[in-house]
Amino acid sequence: MENQPIIDSKWNQCLQLIRHNVQQQAYETWFANISPVTFDEAERRVYMGVPTHYFREHLEAHYLDLLRKVLYRVYGQGVSLYYNVHADSTNGEDMVVQGTQRTTAVDTPVVGAPANKSPLMLQHLDSQLNPNYTFDNFVEGNSNKLPRTVGLAIAQNPRQTTFNPLFIYGPSGVGKTHLVNAIGTHLKELHPEKRVLYVSAHLFQVQYTDSVRQNKTNDFISFYQSMDVLIIDDVQEFVTPGTQQTFFHIFNHLHQNGRQLILTCDRPPMALQGLEERLLTRFKWGLLAELERPDTDLRREILRSKIRQNGLRIPESVIDYISQNVECTVRDLEGIVHSMMAYSVVWNSDIDVQMAERVIEHTLGKQREQQRRELTPTQILEHTCSFFEIDPADVLSKSRKASVVIARQVAMYLVQKHTRMSTTKIGQAIGGRNHATVLHSCHCVEQRMDTDSAFSARIGELEAQLLQ
Predict the structure, then answer these.
(1) Rounded Cα gap, residues 72 and 78, in angstroms
(2) Considering 3, 122, 260, 356, which has the largest number of Cβ atoms within 10 A of its Cβ?
(3) For residues 461 and 217, what is the distance between their CA atoms, to the nearest angstrom?
């Protein structure tokens, strides 16, 4: 090996040549972070230290010809380029990669270049799991038996590879978020040493955008590549090419290293539009499990479970009537229970079949489609603002006041639910927001309705008034 001063001198020559052939931002992002290079003169090998496999893949995809020309000029013709990938170290040694082919991991690491693990990887990890979502309160039935059984198997043995990735799909409100949180929570109980993270696709996208803006993309990628189990909710919200490309590399790293991926979506991969084909292909590698709308028997059991959770006593005749006459999602069933609670308190009356009929008529009646066509964003916005006692001008403004934000998010949620407008048009109609803001708002409202019964009851009341 050459001594370090000579190595540094030659690499500095390389950097000077590279700096004159790429833009300054590209140089700072992709070349300034390369560790000092080692040159094995006997083997004619140049070893270059890089933070992650994603970093190495990007260099090869965009700058391999430039690197080859520069290295030939400085180190001489016929040298081979090897990478020491620090963040993917195993057993304390750097992974050594030549070109696009992986070689053994026993070659000499880069001199003076310790594994460059991000501080984010070493800090305590908050898994972001909702402890209220467990297998105990996830009611099993024919429509969800397969994904629930597979999810339980993954929680018990996260290193198995048969169900990797687990791709759970189904319409909004059938329990996808509940199930993946239950998997993560149970897994942490059985394997507390595992790094488990639940994150929505929207938040992942926001974090990625922030990392690019702050020039911390490598830290972002290294953090996600450190997970043992990664749960991404609502992957249909991956809308930007940069986010998709970054997740592709994170997916590859985790899958190749036997780490578990759990994904949810509102439709199967073959029905997704706007996502890269290579991502869609990988979504199909493991198990596709559909969460269907609950059948009659499951609706009955869900109602009984929700009634017990809320400390209510509702006659079996009412439960039977609702389960037999309402074909809807779990969230709709929760809404019916909360609405009956509200009706019972307001009218000081017992919950009976007649009350159930009125609640169903208000929330899921036969006139719903006709009413949906007649409702306009303006009507929904005005009614929502009146209900929350908020000035519509404030909702349309850029105000971040909590009460205004809630009213704005609920308005977007109701417009999305009761009209056929696209998220882009909804955003334009409500203050000129973009489609990502609308998706995030709807997701926030749905999540809060799942966990806050009082809030869910208020939205049910607002919706009943809106549809009168």
Answers:
(1) 7
(2) 260
(3) 45
101 vs 360 pLDDT, higher one: 360
Is the pLDDT assigned to residue 251 strictly greater than 50?
Answer: yes
DSSP string, 178-238: HHHHHHHHHHHHH-TTS-EEEEEHHHHHHHHHHHHHTT-HHHHHHHHHT-SEEEEE-GGG-
127 vs 124, 197, 199, 345, 351, CA distance in Å? 9, 4, 9, 39, 40
Helices (H), 272-429: 277-283, 296-309, 316-325, 330-347, 353-364, 368-374, 377-388, 392-396, 402-418, 423-429
Note if the bond before 119 is cis, omega within 30 degrees: no
Taking only the tens place, the pLDDT of each residue in 161-220 is 678 899 998 877 788 888 999 999 999 999 988 899 999 988 898 888 888 888 888 889
Contact 30, 64 (CB under 8 A): no
Alpha-carbon torsion (424, 426, 431, 437), positive or negative? negative
Q: What's the mean per-residue pLDDT of the chain?
A: 78
Instruction: Check: pTM over 0.85? Answer yes or no.
Output: no
Beta bridge partners of 48: 83
Long-range contacts of 113-116 (CB under 8 A, 24+ apart): 113/35, 113/36, 113/49, 113/84, 113/86, 114/86, 115/86, 115/87, 115/89, 116/35, 116/49, 116/51, 116/86, 116/87
How does pLDDT run across 401-444, given as a tens digit for each residue?
989 999 999 999 998 888 777 777 888 889 888 877 888 888 88
- What number of residues does the chain have? 468
Q: Is the pLDDT of residue 98 over 50?
A: no
If we measure between CA atoms, which residue out of 91, 96, 90, 93 comes closest to residue 114? 93
Q: Please name the residues in contact with 348: beta carbons below 8 A apart, sequence gap of 6 or more.
A: none
Residues ≥6 apart with Cβ < 8 Å to 398: 431
